[in-house]
TrEMBL record:
NCBIfam families from the UniProt entry: fadh2_euk
Top-level taxon in the UniProt lineage: Eukaryota
Pathway(s) served: One-carbon metabolism; tetrahydrofolate interconversion
Protein name as it appears in the record: Uncharacterized protein
Recorded GO CC terms: cytosol
Entry cofactors: FAD
One MF annotation (Gene Ontology) recorded for this entry: methylenetetrahydrofolate reductase [NAD(P)H] activity
Length: 351
């Protein structure tokens, strides 16, 4: 029977951390084909698992399952995202049954984002309202052994709980460490709201989540605080840092502003200095990513979850800098990919 991620983590040995790669289902056929071509190169680096997300509003649920099946057939261990957005219970059941039939043992249970063009999240008729309800449903329907359930953790608080700091508002020391500076002012998840976030996270774990994958962060001190908070709330399942690497300056700025993510001044200033040079931006992303990974390993993190955005250059650059990249395996994957193209070219020449 295929392995659960918690079992794979427990079996991992050695000092080097394991890695995992997250992808999203492309919107076009060309994009899907391009991702499939990249899969062998990612597989060559022996990730512990790969994540496949749902599109906005659950728009790619079928494609998510199909890509997970292909990854499974290729020898990768998929961790399939499942959201509540636009997913009535019948469709949730179909997705879980499809995963079970394909031998997929790992599910990321999420509420999900609002559908495109919709500002507020609303539950679909006959659906679930939150990740906690979805987690409970999976465990009730399939027991605790069929699926290893991952859940999301928010080191800075959920974006919906990060609110603008009022003029004259005094912040606690913990709030100051979480504060986010945006163009229109400072934002923070208050201590009271952060406590609610942690209580909710504990409820998801108690309901059956076996591990926590964090949303992106760029201040490792905030992640360290989050680990301490997990201990305080009696959360003992593994906490895996989710790493969003800098790929380009514009996208980084838009994403961090939208998610209200704290970006230390040193990172903002460093990126500002190279933002017009694409190669320099990618090198900045590699250097920053490697530094963060080293800090996370020093905190005791045994694994690194990379949000790849379906791109490989910066992710592989970070792994190379950390000594985690297998050059021989990469060369073998490249050679294997070149063989069909060479054969096709030879056939065309002889025709």
């Amino acid at each position: 029977m295929a392995a659960r991620i918690d079992e794979l983590m427990a079996a991992h040995s050695g000092d080097a951390p394991w890695v995992a790669f997250e992808y999203y289902p492309p919107r076009t056929e060309d994009g899907v084909n391009n991702l499939k071509k990249k899969m062998p190169r990612f597989k060559a680096q022996k990730p512990l698992y790969i994540d496949m997300t749902f599109g906005a509003g659950g728009s790619t649920s079928d494609l998510t399952l199909d890509l997970c099946k292909e990854a499974k057939a290729a020898g990768l261990e998929p961790n399939m995202h499942l959201t509540c957005t636009n997913m009535p219970q019948e469709k949730i059941y179909e997705a879980l049954e499809g995963a079970k039939a394909a031998g997929i043992r790992n599910i990321v249970a999420l509420r999900g984002d609002p559908p495109l063009g919709q500002e507020r999240w609303e539950a679909v008729e006959g659906g679930f309202t939150c990740a906690l309800d979805l987690t409970k449903h999976i465990v009730k329907t399939y027991g605790k052994d069929q699926f290893c359930i991952s859940t999301a953790g928010y080191p800075e608080g959920h974006p919906g709980a990060i609110k603008k700091v009022a003029e004259g508002q005094e912040l606690s020391d913990k709030e100051k460490r979480r504060v986010v500076s945006l163009e229109d002012g400072d934002y923070v998840c208050s201590d009271a709201d952060f406590a609610k976030e942690m209580e909710y996270l504990k409820a998801k774990v108690d309901a059956g989540a076996s591990l926590i994958i964090t949303q992106m962060f760029f201040d490792v001190d905030v992640f360290a605080d989050f680990l301490e908070a997990c201990k305080e709330y009696g959360i003992t399942v593994p906490v895996i840092p989710g790493l969003m690497l800098v790929q380009n300056a514009g996208g980084f700025g838009r994403m961090t502003a939208f998610c209200k993510t704290r970006v230390p001044a040193s990172i903002r200033e460093g990126l500002e200095a190279v933002k017009e040079d694409d190669a320099a931006v990618k090198q900045f992303g590699i250097d920053l990513g490697a530094k963060m990974c080293e800090q996370l390993m020093a905190l005791g993190c045994k694994g690194l979850h990379f949000y790849t955005l379906n791109l490989e250059k910066v992710t592989f650059g970070v792994m190379r800098k950390l000594g985690l990249f297998d050059e021989d395996a990469a060369a073998a994957a490249a050679a294997a990919a070149a063989e069909p193209a060479a054969a096709a070219s030879a056939g065309a020449a002889s025709a």
